[in-house]
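Re: [ENG-882] Designed sequences occasionally contain unexpected residues at chain ends

Forwarding the minimal case from QA. Structure tokens:
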């Protein structure tokens, strides 16, 4: 399973909010991440429903819809659901697997355990999120 964990670490490293984490922190997140394979057509998140999972697309493709309108594709290497790790609030979009898809999934419960063990991750993540928000603001401006 070490090989699977290494791949999970590499995928998590590419997630902007985890980009400041060191190898030990990434390894711990990879330990609590699970792999999930879903067939085409599987609804992964439903807009408006509470969320408690974060996803990285390892293989395959998903699509995001808001109010029934397609707003984007989520290809391999991309991620979604990060806000659910922080607040378990309502999903902002419905995400459906467009192809058979392999996902790396972290639940809010497991994520909370890691933060309890390694509180420094919180500050590093906030920096990663701030960078993403700043970029979004620039894109809108």
């Amino acid at each position: 399973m070490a090989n699977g964990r290494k791949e999970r670490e590499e995928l998590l490293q590419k997630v902007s909010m985890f980009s400041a984490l060191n190898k030990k922190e990434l390894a711990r997140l990879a330990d609590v991440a699970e792999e999930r394979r879903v067939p085409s057509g599987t609804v992964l998140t439903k807009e408006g429903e509470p969320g408690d999972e974060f996803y990285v697309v390892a293989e395959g493709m998903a699509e995001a819809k808001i109010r029934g309108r397609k707003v984007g594709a989520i290809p391999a290497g991309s991620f979604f659901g990060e806000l659910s790790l922080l607040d378990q609030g309502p999903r902002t979009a419905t995400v459906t697997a467009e192809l058979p898809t392999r996902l790396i999934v972290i639940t809010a419960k497991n994520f909370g355990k890691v933060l309890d063990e390694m509180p420094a991750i919180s500050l590093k993540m906030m920096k990663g999120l701030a960078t993403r928000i700043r970029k979004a603001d620039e894109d809108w401006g």
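QA comment: On inspection the terminal residues look reasonable. The chain has a mean pLDDT of 90. Proposing we downgrade this to a documentation issue.
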